[in-house]
Structure formats: structure tokens, C-alpha cells
User: What shape does this take?
Amino acid sequence: MAAKYIVGIDLGTTNSALARCDSTSVEENSPIEVCGIPQLVNPNEVAERTLLPSFLYIPGEFDFPKGSIALPWEPEPKLVIGELARKRGAESPNRLVASAKSWLSHSGVNRTAPILPWQAPDEVPKLSPVEASSQFLQHLRTVWDTGDAAEHVLAEQDVLLTVPASFDEEARELTRRAAEQAGFQHVTLLEEPQAAFYAWLESQGDAWRSRIRVGDLVLVCDVGGGTTDFSLITVSEENGELVLRRVAVGDHILLGGDNMDLALARVLQQRLEASGNRVDTWQLHGLWHQCRVAKEKLFVSPKTQTCPITLLGKGTKLIGGTIKTELAREDLDQVLVKGFFPNVASGELPGRRRVGFQELGLPYAADPAITKHLARFLSEQVRNSPEAAGIRRGRSGLACPTHVLFNGGVMKAAVLRDRVVEVLNSWLREEGVDELGPQQILEGPDLEHAVARGATYYGKARRGRGVRIRSGASRTYYIGIESAMPAVPGMEAPLKALCVVPFGMEEGTEATIPDREFGLVVGEPAEFRFLNSSVRKQDKVGSLLEDWGDDIEELSPLEVTLTLDGQQGTVVPVRLETRVTEIGTLEVWCVSRDGKQRWKLELNIREKTGR
Assistant: This one.
């Protein structure tokens, strides 16, 4: 049965979101809705929120009264997920799993091993980053399957799951595995910057055509609760269609709104202790949470100058057992605007850690200045990207965007968006290029849910019911096939080039090599050779070239052992299927003659290197 719904899932570092639209609606502009997510917000209280905090709490025997964490679909859950997990984790951080998404991308640890909560006592059960991510997806699947669309289970819908553009192939594969463990039969991965751009397109209707044009360079500035990500997207035209290409991706920087809330809490802690009130670790966590709420209130109400903070006290000397203070707008300006978004020169790069010994854990950013990280991205990282050749640059070689698209909960604050634009314009003046005007700031209406909404819109566009910004293969790709010829001393068997991806093949599409079988070596290490061409645009899927010259060049070979139970050094007849994914990888599937065995080879065709 065809899926009734197109579903976008933003599996965020700090918050996750779910959006959908009816794929069977006859309306061209069928609406995209953000789904409510029931979750525990307090003991004995389940409420619906549009965001699911990406926090998982592992309760101890006496953490909650018996029956107080029951859910409508699970009377005795072993884990607490969402808002209550975040609240209780502030009091008992050793039982809290946070930033699972960042752990999923951290190559310095075994991401499939039970390591979270990190450095928790031995008596606390642990989960792997993959399992923790799977638990969030499982929660989303369960609330869907028990909600108003229960007759159309989520696992059978057209699900698009977003990942950071900075995720490497292993982190992307682990994300797929987490989805499989959560019961999803098939998901399509989509990069978050592209999803954010699609959300902006959806919000604009037909007006987008007057906002961007061929030759533009869009900076996606995504600052969320736990991470900061930068990407550059170019706008070009091919065959009369607008083409969007992601040409540069920054690091997955562990720096975001949580750092800002903690910085505000530290300022208030110092203020309280200066007046004679000692603030211990437990109270600091409470202060951290309250600063987040107060910060958001002040940003939403520009005319409000202060927001009261009430902290539970300790000891008998405190009147009423509470401590009172306030967060002032001046604190936001000093700590957040000037501290995290300082007005720096484009050559002022972020500092690095200098202490010889460091505690093992997530590689948090050493420098909190987000504008410094942006300066490094527009200079060093872009300069080293082979795909960024030809983009607009200034006198010093700095990449100079023509537009900025903001994303992430932090960037909801107008004062922070204005600060980023102010700093960028100071760099553009130095570089001798045009500054960014109001029309060049591509502000979306719903930054917290934009990625989920954009993923859903992309699902619509794939069905021809939205603006599809195409990004076809810029080269033709081949795999090497060893010729079936007698061995000759001192000479290798000739290599034929089999076309598996023709020029212009769109991301998200598949192809089958017609009417042909090949022998696949299994059970021992084998070398798989990939080739490409930037000039041969006439070759079709399945074209087998015996004599190929300088117009085809070979890439780095991929050495892999493909296994088959009981077989070693065997050649198995297979047919080939290929797919170019939305995140820029070429998948070559080798399918046995009976269809029971499938092996996958993968190549990152955006970076032109084997994986």
C-alpha cells in the first residue's frame, strides 16, 4: 500500500520534532502540520508538546513514586524520555543521557557500546549512542501509532529523517541503524541545511523566486540547543531549473544554547555568592534551567528589562527556604551578545585548548565565540573544500555569502540574528563586496520546527507537489569489471568500466543494471575499483566500456571483505542495483540470483573519495 503520510523527523541534539502532511490530498498545497508529542512533563502528568527534549533519564529504584511515570501506552517504563527526563536529569546528572546525537558522531568512542550516561557509576545501567537515539525514535513511533493516525502506522509511511551535513558516513549509517532498531522499515536521510532551506521555500510560496537567483551563495547558520553548524549552498541553473548544491560544511561544533544558559547561571551564581549565598551544584542546575526560561521570556518581550529568578534554598538561615535574584536584559547583552557573538575581525579564529591533560568525553568547543567559528568556516574550511571552487570570495579569499538563512532555536532571538548580520557585513566591507540587506536575510517563520517541516516538504517535492531544487550527479561514475581472459605473466587482466551513475542522475533515485550478471568475490578481501568522468555525459546506466582513455579517471580503490556463510574465496553471480542518496553517496547493491543475499558498496561522490 502507498504511504498515506509524508513524515519529517528532526532528531535533534537538544530537541526532536515531528511534522507530516497527507500525501493523498488532492490539494496542490496540502498543509504541513507539526505533530504534538505526548510525554511526561512531571510525575503523574502526561502532556502534549510540539518538541520532544532529546533527554533520556534512567530512573533508580527510589527516584519516582510507584506508578508516577506510567504512560498511556506503557504502565511501567524503564526509561523516562522528554521534558521530565530533562528536569530530573538536572538534579541527578549521573542518570541522564544527553547529546546522544553528538555522541553518535564522536569517532573517539565506540558508538555501539553501552557508554551513556558517560562516566556514570557502575550501578547505573548504560546505553549506547545508537540505542539512545533509537529510544527517541521509538517514542515518536509509539505516540504516532497510538494517536489519531494509528490506522496508518509510522513505520509504513514515507519517513524522512534529517542528519547534520557534518555527519560522516559512519554516523549516518549508525543513524539508519538506530531507525531500524526503532522499528522503521525504511527511512530517507536528508541533510539538515537542505531541510531548513526547504522549510524556507515552503514559507515563501511563489515569492521565493524574487528572493534568490542564479549565482547566489546562501550561508545556513544553524545554532541549536547543543550544537552549531554552518553550511554554504550555491544557487545555479541547469536546463532551466534551479539547482541547489551544498558546497561546504563546517565541523559539528558542540556549542549552543545550553552553553549560553549555563553562562547566565554562572553569572547569577557569582552574584548570589557575592551577597553571602552559597550555591551548590544541585542549586546551580536549577539555576541553569531557570535561566533558560527567563532568557526566552526576555527575548520574546523586548520591552521587559528584568525577569525574576527564585531558587530553592539550603539550610535553616534562609527566610522561606528560597533565594531570589533576577536576570536582566543587560546580562543578555554582556554574556550572550558580546560573549558568544563578539564583533571580531574575519581573521580572528577560535582559540584552542592548551592544557596537556583533558577529561575524556565529548569534544566540546574550547572557544565560546560563535562568530570566531564562523570566521574559520568561511576562511580555512571553505578554502580546503574542492567543491567550493568558483564561489564568491573577497580580497583575502574569504567566502562571502549573498544571503543568510538562520535556523535553530537560539536564532529565534532577533538581537542575535542582527548581531550575526552586523559581524558579517563588517567582514564583507573589509573584503570589498556588497553587504547583506534586509531582503537577503532569509528568515523562516518557525525555527524550532523548520527542519522537520522542511523534510516533509522535500517529501512532497519528490512527488512533484512542491518546488524541487535539483542536485543531480555532476559526473558520470563507473565501477571496474575485470575481463574474463586467460592469465598472462606480468600483466593484469584488462579492466572494463561499467557505468552505474550517468551524468545528472538525481539524488534519491535508483537504477538497475539491465539484463546482465557479474561475478562477485565473497569470503576474502577484494579490491573494488571506482572511476569517474567529468566529460563523458552520453553514457547510460549499464554501458560497459572496454577501451577507456584519459577522459575517465580512477578513484581510490575500496578494499572490502563481503561475507557469505560457509563460503571463502567464492565467486557468486549477482545483478547490480545503484542508488544516489539524498546525502550524496553512491550505493551499489549486489543482489544474488535468488534475491536472498544483498551486499552494499558505498562511495561518497560529493567528495570523490571511496568509503
